[in-house]
Structures are given as C-alpha cells and as structure tokens.
Specification:
Helices cover 73% and strands 1% of the residues. The protein is mostly helical. The strands form two sheets. A two-stranded antiparallel sheet has the order 1-2. A two-stranded parallel ribbon has the order 3-4. The relative contact order is 0.03. One of its GO terms (cellular component) is exocyst.
C-alpha cells in the first residue's frame, strides 16, 4: 500500500554528502512519484553511476519488504478467495460440457443450411462484383468516348467543344472513376488540356492582334475612301444645283426640274463590309473577329473572363500607342494617310467589338481610348502644322483629316477637337496661300509682254475668256481672235480662281457652315494686298511706252469684269445663291492699279501733249485780227489725239478711253489757262482770246466727234474737261464780265473758275484800240471795260479783306471756301459797295 504521509519534493544538493543521505533522497523522490532524472544526470556528471545503481537496488529491496508485509497482513482473505474460485471452477466445467453437447447437436442440424447459405452469399457477392464491373466499364466507356471526342475536337481546332468535353468529364466522372490509374490520368491530363487550350487561344489571339493592325489600316483607308466618294457625290450634286440655279436665273421658262436620288450603294457596301466579315467579302481580306470571340469564349469557359478583358484592353492600348508614333525618317506629308488610316481602322474595329463582343470591352473604355487618340492626333497636327511652310501641303493634310472626322462621326465618335485644330490654323493656311499666290502673280506679271493675246482655237477662247466670264458678248468670235487683254489677265485669273477653290476647300467640311464671309475676306486681301500691289509695282517699274500703258489700262478694265466673276465663283462654291451676291454693291478692289494705269497712260499722253502745247508760246497775244483756223498748237494736239483714239479704241473700253481723254482735255485746259496766267504773257487783247475761243471750239468739236465711240452723255462729259478754259474765255469775251459777281450766274456759268486767276488774267487784258489799260483820251467809255474794271475792283477788295486768312489755306480749302461761302459774300458786296466784315 502507498504511504499516507504528505508528499514533498526533494531537490538534490550539489554533490553527495554521504551515501545514506543520497539513498534517502532517492527513496523519497521515488515514493512521491517525482522525476529521478536529475539524480541520474548528476550521477553521470559526477562519474559515479555505480553508486546510483546501488541506491536503486537498495530502494527495490526495501519495497519488496513492504510487499511481503502487506501480503502477510491479508493472507487469510486471500485463502478464502482461492477456495471460492475452486468451487466456481467445477461449475464452469459442467456448463462447458453442456454447451459442447448443445453445439454439436446444433451443428449437426444446421450443416446443410449453412452450406446453402454459403453458396447464396458467394453467388450474391459474385453478382455484385459483376454489376460493379459492368457499371465501371460503362463509366470507363463514357470517359473514353468523351476523351476521344475531346481529342477529335483538339485535332480539329475546336477548342471550345474540347473544353466542354473536359469540363463534363471533370464534373460528372472524375469523382466516380473506378480505376485509380484512369483517375490519375484524368487528374493529370484535364489541367494539361486546359493549359493547352489556353495557350492555343492565346496564340491565335496574338496572331489576330498582329493581323488586325494591317487589316485596320486597310479598313481605315477604305472608310476614308468611302467618305471621299460621298464628298464627291455631294460636290456633283451641288454643281448640278448651281447649274440649275443659274439656268433658272437666266431663263425661268426653261427650268427643268428633276428628282435627285441619293446613291447609297457605297454606304450599303461599306456597312455590309463592316458587319459581314469574310462571309460578305469584308472591308479588307481576312477581316474576321472569330479568333477574338473564340478566345474570349474560351476564357469565359475557363473562368478567366476578367483577366482576358484586361489582357485585351492592355494589348489594344499598346497597339494604339504604337500607332501614335510618327516616323522622323519619313516626311509627314508622305505618311499622314497611313497614320490617320491606322487610327481610323483601329476605332472602327473597336466599335464593332463594342457592339458585338458581348461585353468584351465597355463603352467607357472605348471613349477613354478615343479621348487619348484625339488628344494625340491634335498634338501631332499642331506640331506638323507649325512646321509647314507650304499651303498645298497643309491643305492636303487638312482634307484627309476632315475625311477622317467624317468617317469617325459616322461611328459616333466626337470630332469637335479635330475641327477646332483645323479652324485654329485657318489664318496660317491663308497666309501661306497668299504668299504662294504673291510669288505666282509676280512671275506671271514678269512674263507679260504687254501684247494682245492671240487665240487660234475655240478651246483657247473657252479656257482664257469663257472660263472667267471675260466676254462682252455671248457670240463666239471668229478665229484667230485677238483679245483686248494680254496673257497676264487669264494667268492671274487662274491664280485667283485656284486661291478661291483652295480657300473654299480648306473651309469646307470643317464644322463651319456659313464660311462665305471668311472666304470673301481673304479674297479681298488677295485682290487688294497682293494683286493690286503687284500691278501697281509693275506699272511703276516696267511700263515704258504708251502702247504698254494702254495695254495695262485695257487689262484693268478686263480685271474689273473678272473680279465680279471671282466673288460669284466664291459664292457658288460656298453655297451662297448668286442673287444674294448680285445684290451686293462693292467697289472695284483693284482701284489703285486701275488709277495708276490710267494715270500712267494719261501722264504719257500729257507728256506728248506738253510738247505740242509748247507751241502756244508762238501765239500773238496782241494781234490785230483773230486767227480763223486756230493756232498751230491746237492743230498738232488734235492730230495727235485723233491718232491716239484710232489706236486706243481697238484696245481700251469706252469708259476707260473717256476717263483718259477727259483727263487729257482737262490738262490741255489747264495749260491754256496757265499760259494766260504765266509770266511769259504780260498782256493780251480780245483778238488773242478770240483765237483761244476758236482753239477750244476745235477741241470741243473733237470731243463731240467721239460720240460714235462713246454715248452722247459721255461725249458731253469729255467737253466738261475744257470747262475752265471755256468759262474763262466766255468771261473775257462777255459784254458783262461783272456778272461773275452774281452768285446765281457764277454757279451756273463760271463754277470752274478761281477768282484769283480771274483777277490776274483780267488785269492782263487790254483793249486793242487803247493800249494803255482801257483808257483813251477823248474816246467814249467802253461799257465792257467799265464792267471788267468793276469786276477787278470788287475781286481785289475781297482779296485784300480775306487775304490774311486765305493765305493760311491750301488750294482745296480756298476752292471749298469759294463754293460754300464766297458766293454769298460777293452777293453782299454787290448790294453794298462798302462791305462790312
């Protein structure tokens, strides 16, 4: 029995103080059930394991003694228990004998039944094994069939069907596969098949990504070509509309109305090509999204839909980024079509994927890609436009960009940013275009020989005259035909027409509907700043004869008709009805050149006239009788003018000839007045004035004789060029010169005279009968002399009164003063001999 004494833990001390003490400590630890490993460890550490073994043996002997004491204490009880067991053993033997007999009898009786039962159990087990085998075979056959079908699909590149077979095997048969070998094979091959399918679809998708770049470029070129064809059809329709409008404007009775049907075949073929792929011919060879959709379907079946979407978006984004690269080795003018077509095709493909891809790419992602693309395109255009120095290059790129915008708008992409870039560079384009036209016009003017243009064939007449509406009659002339203008006129007209067409082409299809005002503004600049200045420079530097000046003046008259054509042509191309343009009155834009040409021509004629007018010095200013046939100078002048008119009427239009002759006659009039006013003529008599009157009559007769060339009104206007000399002669020959002071008579008969000149010239007039200032002793006073003296006196009074103020005014101011207020002052003087100011 275990001791009831309280347990306590005995910890051995360092070293063994004595064998007895160590034995007691070990005994106490064993009795308390404590671990004796510290004692063992310490004994081996001290090198005395034998002593520990002796102690353990001593403890064992002490325990045996305790056991003996316990046995001695319970010996009687043990003997009693053994006796009871012996008596129980005899009863057990009897029971065993009885059971043995019963067992032998039972076995004898149940032996046949047991045999039958064993046979049944064996048969049932065999049947179960057979059924299990049949079921396993069926499963294996089904698995084998699915595997064979999957292999066939893989062989035929039907990856999705193969994947469905594999999924069916895994879902329905993998867990119930009876054969471990087959199961292991399936567990190994199913992931391998999926990996193979994924790699195969990824490879096909990669090949499609490579192929779609070429297809996209062809697709973009086709789409932009369709937009260009549509634009051409629209231009043809507009041309027919303009022709119908012109026809209806010219003859309302001959109007022909026709129903225009839009040709939608190209649009339908375009749509069919986009949506039909290979089946309908496609937009370009091999345009097919089947590899993409199959890869997407396969990844959906593999549960990798989101990963494939991200993979597709990233790869397409990388392709788009690579499409943005502009080669520095190739000029942008040569590569811009490929650049824009590649981007256009990219987004046409993405539009179809968005519509038919089943969520492969979202609308938001496509919009982000388009925003990135439009930003890059605008950046490239800004950079390239800033480098271009040729208007034609900029126009070519603008046209292609506008076609790109039309194509993209058909697929719902916003293109306002592109149009803004084009509008932003409108001024630069026109500046370059003006610069190009300036060079062309300078070259055309430099090549002009100032000779009338000879046209031998009708096509030349149509190309140089009818094309710019320069004809003055609708009747086709006989050939060869000598035009009144030189070759520079049609050359400049072609340059201006090209400018208009290029300007309209740039402004068209740029988002701005009403751009006629813009085209007109730059057309005005071309005519005013380029053509007009070039003509003025030509006139100032290159004209060296009357014939050349006459030809340039004739050219300017033709240019005036051409300018009307320019504005009409610009309006037609801009879609503005001609009736609106015809209502607008505009000034001739080449006024400076026209005036310079006419001034040059009249200046040269005036120079010739001055040579003849120098003969006026031979006039006898104090002759006793007036000359009946006119003075020598006027005969020479008239001969020269008649010669000039006979030549000029073949070239110059009547209105130009009228202005030149009127300017020349005004110059002659000024020369006559100047001769009387000059210091070389100290005095003259009435006979000399009568001779001048004859001279002026001859000149007026010459002006009237031009009525066959000009209308009567124009002939009368020619005579007005001699107004100053005619009014002066009339005043000097008048019986009442004092009527000059009458405002009404002055405004009616002497409005071209300057009172200062009248005073100076009147003081030189002398009576032939009295050579001393109109006074003769004992003679009867001459009323005409008195009237003239009164006129001179009144004019001197006015001159002395207003001289300080008038001296501060220039000639024009004095004339305005004379016309506005001086008449009233003279009227006051006439009423009051003592004027009060």
């Amino acid at each position: 029995m275990q001791s009831t004494k309280s347990r306590r833990r005995i910890v051995p001390e360092n070293g063994f103080g004595g064998d007895k003490q160590d034995q007691l400590l070990l005994s106490s630890a064993i009795a308390n059930g404590e671990d004796i490993s510290p004692f063992v460890r310490k004994a081996f550490a001290a090198g005395k394991p034998d002593i520990l073994l002796q102690h353990l043996k001593a403890v064992a002997r002490s325990k045996e003694a305790e056991i003996e004491e316990v046995c001695k204490a319970h010996y009687q009880d043990f003997i009693l228990a053994v006796d009871e067991l012996r008596s129980l053993l005899s009863d057990v033997d009897d029971l065993k004998s009885s059971l043995s007999l019963s067992n032998s009898h039972l076995q004898a009786v149940a032996q046949p039944l047991l045999a039958t039962l064993d046979a049944f159990i064996e048969t049932r087990n065999v049947n179960a094994n057979v059924l299990l085998c049949v079921a396993s075979i069926k499963i294996c056959i089904q698995i084998a069939e699915l595997c064979a079908r999957a292999n066939s699909h893989l062989k035929n590149d039907e990856l999705y069907l193969a994947l469905r077979c594999v999924d069916k095997i895994e879902r329905n048969y993998l867990k119930v596969t009876p054969l471990s070998t087959l199961k292991n094979m399936l567990e190994k091959q199913i992931p391998a098949v999926r990996v193979y399918v994924e790699k195969k679809t990824n490879k096909e998708f990669g090949d499609w990504l490579v192929e779609i770049r070429t297809v996209s470029r062809n697709l973009g070129q086709f789409a932009i070509g369709q937009a260009s064809s549509a634009r051409q059809r629209e231009e043809e329709l507009r041309m027919r509309q303009r022709q119908a409008e012109e026809q209806s404007r010219l003859s309302l009775r001959d109007c022909v109305y026709a129903l225009e049907e839009e040709d939608e075949s190209l649009d339908l073929s375009f749509a069919a090509g986009i949506d039909g792929g290979r089946e309908n011919g496609g937009v370009s060879p091999g345009f097919d999204l089947t590899p993409l959709y199959r890869a997407f379907h396969v990844h959906q079946s593999l549960g990798l839909e989101d990963r494939f979407k991200q993979y597709y978006f990233e790869n397409r984004k990388l392709q788009l980024t690579s499409d943005f690269q502009v080669s520095s080795m190739t000029p942008f003018l040569e590569s811009h079509q490929t650049f824009f077509a590649q981007i256009a095709g990219f987004f046409i493909v993405e539009d179809r994927v968005l519509r038919t891809g089943g969520g492969l790419i979202s609308k938001w992602e496509v919009e982000n890609l388009w925003e990135m693309a439009i930003s890059k395109i605008c950046s490239v255009l800004e950079d390239q436009f800033s480098r271009m120095q040729t208007a034609n290059h900029l126009l070519l790129i603008k046209d292609y960009v506008s076609l790109l915008g039309v194509s993209m708008r058909r697929f719902g992409y916003p293109v306002d940013a592109l149009l803004d870039v084009l509008s932003k560079h409108r001024d630069k384009y026109h500046e370059l275009l003006l610069s190009d036209c300036r060079k062309q016009i300078t070259d055309a003017l430099a090549a002009d020989k100032f000779e009338q243009m000879l046209m031998k064939k009708e096509y030349e007449y149509s190309m140089n005259v009818l094309a710019f509406q320069l004809q003055t009659s609708d009747i086709i002339p006989a050939f060869p035909y000598v035009a009144p203008f030189s070759s520079t006129v049609p050359d400049c007209c072609r340059i201006v027409r090209s400018f208009i067409e290029d300007s309209v082409s740039f402004m068209s299809y740029g988002g701005q509907l009403d751009f006629y005002d813009v085209v007109k503004k730059y057309l005005d600049r071309l005519l005013n700043e380029v053509l007009d200045e070039a003509l003025v420079k030509l006139i100032g530097n290159s004209i060296h004869g009357v014939s050349q000046a006459m030809q340039v003046a004739a050219n300017m008259a033709v240019f005036e008709r051409a300018c009307d054509f320019f504005f009409k042509h610009a309006a037609q191309l801009s879609g503005i009805p001609l009736r609106m343009v015809e209502r607008t009155k505009r000034q001739f834009p080449l006024r400076k050149a026209r005036d310079a040409a006419e001034d040059m021509l009249s200046g040269m004629i005036k120079t010739k006239i001055d040579g003849f007018m120098s003969l006026i010095e031979n006039v006898n200013w104090m002759g006793d009788e007036p000359l009946q046939g006119g003075n020598e100078y006027v005969n020479e002048v008239i001969i020269f003018l008649e010669t000039f008119v006979s030549t000029a009427q073949q070239i110059l239009p009547p209105e130009v000839l009228k202005r030149v002759l009127q300017d020349v006659l005004s110059h002659i009039s000024e020369k006559i007045v100047g001769a009387l006013l000059g210091d070389s003529v100290k005095r003259f008599n009435v006979n000399a004035i009568t001779g001048l009157d004859i001279d002026i009559r001859l000149l007026e007769s010459f002006a009237e004789s031009q009525g066959s060339l000009l209308c009567d009104t124009d002939a009368n206007q020619l005579k007005s060029g001699l107004a100053e000399s005619r009014q002066l002669v009339n005043l000097l020959l008048s019986n009442n010169p004092e009527n000059f002071l009458n405002p009404v008579i002055r405004e009616k008969n002497y409005n071209a005279l300057d009172y200062k000149k009248v005073v100076t010239i009147s003081e030189k007039l002398r009576d032939p009968s009295d050579r001393s200032f109109f006074t003769t002793r004992g003679a009867r006073p001459n009323p005409k002399k008195k009237s003239l003296d009164a006129l001179i006196r009144r004019l001197r009074e006015v001159n002395s009164t207003f001289c300080p103020w008038i001296k501060q005014c220039n000639g024009d101011a004095c004339n305005r003063l004379l016309r506005m207020g001086f008449i009233m002052i003279l009227w006051r003087i006439n009423r009051d001999p003592k004027p009060r100011i």
